[in-house]
Amino acid sequence: MPYSFTKIEEDKSKTISFVFSFLIFVYFLVFWLIALLTVHYFQYEANPQKFSIHLSALRFSHTLIILGLAMIIGYIHWNYSTSDLIQKILRVLRAERLNPKDHYHQMLQNIVDEVSVATGGKKIDAVVIPTMAMNAFAVADFSGQAVIGVTEGVLARLSRAQIEAVVGHEAAHVVSGDCLATTVTTSLFELFNGVLRGLESIFKGGGRSSNYPSMRVQSRGGGAAIIFLILVYALLAITKLLSQLARLFLSRQREYRADAVAVRLTRDPLSLAEALYAIAYRWRGGGLAAQELQSIFIVNPVFSAIDENNGLWSEMFSTHPPIDGRISLLLDMAHSDVESVIKDVERQAQKPRTAAPEIETSSVQWVAHKDGAWQGPFNLAQMTALGWMRPETWVQRLGDNKVQMAYQDQDIRHVVSKAEDGQTSGAFECPKCCLPLTTVVYEGTEVYKCPACGGTLVREKEMQRIIIRQEIGFNERIIKIAEGIQNEGRQPELKVINRDPKTLLKCPKCNHVRNRMMRMFFTEAYHVEVDKCFACGMIWFDHDELEALQYLIEHSLDRSLS
User: Which band of pLDDT confidence, cut at 50, 70 and 90, is reported for residue 4?
Assistant: First the structure.
């Protein structure tokens, strides 16, 4: 009979509660033992001849006081270390807020909202990490704030159902209190770890430290002091090892339980199995910051043989349960097999692509009426350069008998919408044609294209998303251009960048003559020539250059994976 998600959730919840209670017990026990050692040390200092060791050296009232102090100190340390914790973690991970105009981000927000409803209305924020890596995480604090984050690689390479399963897994960590429990235990035992590091500095310094008073063996109690420190050090070292093992065990159990809760929320164990397979065996950690926070991720960002093996050693020191075991449990629920998962993931990786958006207006020509005669024909770029064009100028498209005023033609009304001072009403202008750029959706995000020359203006922060995503396909023209650029890259002497100040473009955003864009290669690895403004980060690509860059990068990645 398949192992049901409800049975997994119940079993793991009991185990997690027991281990968490054990960690809290160990925390107070260590406090009590340190206090016991301290009392014996001072008793020995006061009267070495009558000194004897008694576990009852601390009266019951003293024990209560010590435990109370432990609670107070632990709470103060925990409160200090968890202050603004979520924002600290997000900064370390370089996570970013969702862009409401980005189609991929809109999809993620919708999924998080849907899962939030399934959890009973828990408010959950969503963020993204701009990296090709495929992973996800969740963090929460006692203020009620909860955040689920995924990488751009997850949004680009997983299907909607698979992303829903991943978000469901991370939501399970939030609603089950896993994030809070991890925060509490890590914070409490970090206090002991700090003392342990201080003692290590004393021993390494020969008994002297700038932060701790030196202790010499010359005095009557010097030997006792050293023994006291050694005993405290040994106790803390054992506590550190014990707490790490327990927390690793908790981390593994939480992943099993989160998988089970995700199945309960989404009713789709197969999609979660596919997502885990795609993440674990493809792009789990490349380019991901703060990999030392591996316990908060759905899959360890760094491949570890310990995580993927069975046995006592792996059970003790791995941060996550073996991926094969997690997938096997999920497939058992879904009544499926690994071969089907592999085929589905491969099929998803080879999904058909769409054509790049094109603005087909550059081939249209017009004639314009001036001084009693028709002038032209002019294309769109030439129309823009005509200094005498006005909204009331009569115009006619070639091949069309309709004569109308310029402001009535939807394709050239923006040409004549300039005020007499030469400024536009707010749209970016093409740095070459001086035409207002048209906003188009490219790889799910907004870019700005010139309807005349076909150039593309992109914000620097959007470039990584465009490169990661693989929605747009490449035609033969783009492939030939990219291969030509690649061949030139093998012979650098054939490619010389013209940086004559007279030819440098004016930044469409900064819109200032003095603020020229720098002409350069996109990177030294990919010799696609671009114009970049270092003041605002805008990047200008000539016609087909953005697509050629994408092809070069994807082709290079395909070769490295093959």
Answer: low
- CA 231 from centre of chain: 43
Furthest CA-CA distance within the chain: 123
> Cα torsion at 96, 128, 146, 176 (round to 10°)?
-160
**Stretch (H or E) spanning 97:** strand 96-97
Structure tokens at 118: 């399934």
- Spatial contact of 389 and 375, defined as CB atoms under 8 Å apart: no
Handedness of CA 401, 407, 409, 415 (dihedral sign): positive
- Report which secondary-structure segment, H or E, holds 76: helix 60-81
Residue 56's identity, in one-letter code, is: S
Task: Please tell me whether the overall predicted TM-score, pTM, comes out greater than 0.90 for this model.
Answer: no
DSSP run (H or E) holding 19: helix 5-46
Query: What pLDDT score does 84 carry?
Result: 73
Q: Which of 86-100, 302-316, 385-399, 478-492 has the lowest mean pLDDT?
A: 302-316
pLDDT of residue 366: 87
Alpha helices in 95-221 (DSSP H): 103-118, 152-157, 160-175, 178-204
Least confident of 108-117, 307-316, 377-386: 307-316
The pLDDT tens digits for 230-255 are: 887 887 788 777 776 766 766 777 88
Distance CA 559, CA 562 (A): 5
| Separation of alpha carbons 36 and 55, rounded Å | 8
Kindly write down the DSSP assignment for every residue of 329-397, as one continuous string. HHHHHHT--HHHHHHHHHHHHT---BPPP--TTTT--EEEEETTEEEEEE-HHHHHH-TT--TT-EEEE
The type of residue at 192 is F
For the chain, the residue count is 562
Order of all β-strands in the sheet with 394-397: 373-378, 366-370, 394-397, 403-405
The predicted structure's pLDDT at residue 277 = 92
Least confident stretch, 171-185, 214-228, 362-376? 214-228
Residue 451: which of 426, 424, 432, 475 has the closest Cα? 432
d(Cα 533, Cα 519) in Å, to the nearest integer?
9
Q: Which residues pair with 31 in a beta bridge?
A: none
